Amino acid sequence: MFEPMWLSPKVIRPIVGTRRFYIEGLDFQDPVAARIYRELLDFFGASQAADRQCADLVFIMNSAALPAERDGAYRIHTEGDCVCIEGNTATALLYGLYGWVRRKACGQQIDDFESVPNQALRMIDHWDQTDGSVERGYAGESIFFGVLGSNSHADFRNFPDRRQDDPFRGDLARVTAYARLLASIGINAIALNNVNVRGEAKKLIVEPYLDRVAVLADIFGQFGIRVFLSVNFASPIDVGGLSTADPLADEVSAWWEKIVDNVYQRIPAFGGFLVKADAEGEPGPMRYGRTHVDGANMLARPLSRHGGLVIWRAFVYDCNQDWRDRSLDRAKSAYENFIGLDGLFAENVVLQVKFGPIDFQVSEPANPLIGRMTHTNLMIEFQITAEYLGQQIDVNYVLPQWLAMTNWDTCAPQVDARVKAVVPKLCLVSAHTGFAGVSNVGMDDNWTGNTLAQANLYGFGRMCWDPDATAGSILDEWMTLTFPGLRGPAREAVSEIMLTSNKTFKNYTAPLGVGFMVKPGLHYGVDVNGYEYDRWGTYHFADRDGIGVDRTQSTGTGFTAQYHQALEERFEHAETTPDDLLLFFHHLPYDHVLHDGQTLIQHIYSSHFEGVKEVERYITLWKKVKGLIPQADWENVADRLQAQKADAVEWRDQINTYFHRMSGVPDRLGRKIYA
Ligand code: GCU
């Protein structure tokens, strides 16, 4: 049995203590209410009191107590020794239960405390495939799918009728533990399968697979989490046997309507569909000369009758770009494809936008659509799985980067134009906006490959919920809940590693906003020119004189024009562009002087030397932690730190040698660069 990392009974029960609980006003027909009851008895080891007077933990369902517009809000107050948790839904009370445990464990104030989620939709997107693999997964096989016998962890007892070709793993204990773990950080939606919907996955929307999805949806539903499925836009052809998937063809919309009605008959609380259309080779409405609006709204119609959503991805770009044509710019794609459609999507369509204009890089500006689309529901997409961020080998606590993004000022003419504030404000229905994160879990014992990568999953949920959370406060919570024995210098060591790790990774992989110098396809390890003469539109344009992408309007691709004026002006000029994003917006000579007084080439050399030094320091710091956390976790990270060092050394030497050869400029400090 796998224990969820920060909700292990061993850790939690002593914190909860022997409590006697009493629940007021909940209808136990509600699966979440029933779950609260079971959690208290079975998981937290509390007992039920005969009446309120005998209880020291009281749950009160009170619909008037909290702001109705934010589902899930709860209040905790104490009356003597008695803790009262109030909420306006059963799910809010469940959040209150986990919130109380967390605050108690972390020594935070619990007397008269109100907690309101910042984002309405707090979603995890799995890129799990029905063969058991996970696209961009670095923590073992899928926890949902897996062909029989393909994984030693598989526990098939829960699906006694499971046949050889059944793609569902059926490890319901693991799914339950996962659902608890997600609910404990406030997640309320999940997509079970990869956005690239191939093979058997196309059939998840119909029987017999739909029956299996219903079982999983039932488990997640007990924890207040709505299940979504990714669908293939060509399903009417591939699953339905029609000759077209044209969204304006009557037989196509009739087919989807039947599918949707049937899904809701099996799963009344079904969330809806997640769709990657006309992107990276996936089918979509444009194949039929139709628009994204035609496609999304066609699916939205039948879903709206059941309260379902269409989450339509804005990750649409030409992946057959000609590298020879310097005027083309992939960064402009999302905006160009969608800005003209603002206001045309149905109320139950949510446009899911990657946080940056390229693709989950360690250094990117915000996607200009955010704050510009004012009549469309947006969901901002983050990638918890570390595809471009070290793949859960290299330690990379990404919250500093994400929080910089959620606090990014879009300069939209609003009172508060930060990303986290404009998303629920500039939309059709704020309940249909939020954040999504691509999952980083798998069947590995520690869930996330690298034990320290758990903090990114934990942090994603906390970031969606708490607008004031900082990278440090989130990390502190995670450390306390995961390694309760960790104190003093050892705890400081973990903290130091984690809080500097995102910058360290950036230092040796992505100087000043240049990305994608990775091995093509794999996306781990250095390959300076791996994507330079390719069709994917991700170039650095280094030559003997300089490096970077000119995205200005005066001499470049004109991408800067997509931002609100204040940002447009800032990024149009190198002098006002922050160094961190300098080469994202400008092509500059190697002797360009940065704000800190260094030349560009000297920065490239120094950041790479520094990156390796930092990883060496992490190896030393990690030794302080030995013996204070479970040995398996310690070794898991210690091994990965060695691999990270080898990775960082390779990055340093290849990048420094490459740019030394290109520029002919020696390192001012005379450090070793292989000529
Ligand atoms: C990245 C990733 C793909 C993924 C795509 C997406 O490009 O490498 O594996 O399918 O993003 O977000 O759709």
From TrEMBL:
Q: Where is the Glycosyl hydrolase family 67 catalytic domain?
A: 113-447
- Is-annotated flag, keyword Iron? no
Per UniProt, which keywords does this protein have? Hydrolase
Question: PANTHER family recorded for this chain?
Answer: ALPHA-GLUCURONIDASE A
- According to the entry, every stretch annotated as the Glycosyl hydrolase family 67 C-terminal domain falls at 448-671
| The species this protein was found in | Bifidobacterium choladohabitans
Q: What is the protein's given name? A: Alpha-glucuronidase
Q: Pfam families given for it? A: Glyco_hydro_67C, Glyco_hydro_67M
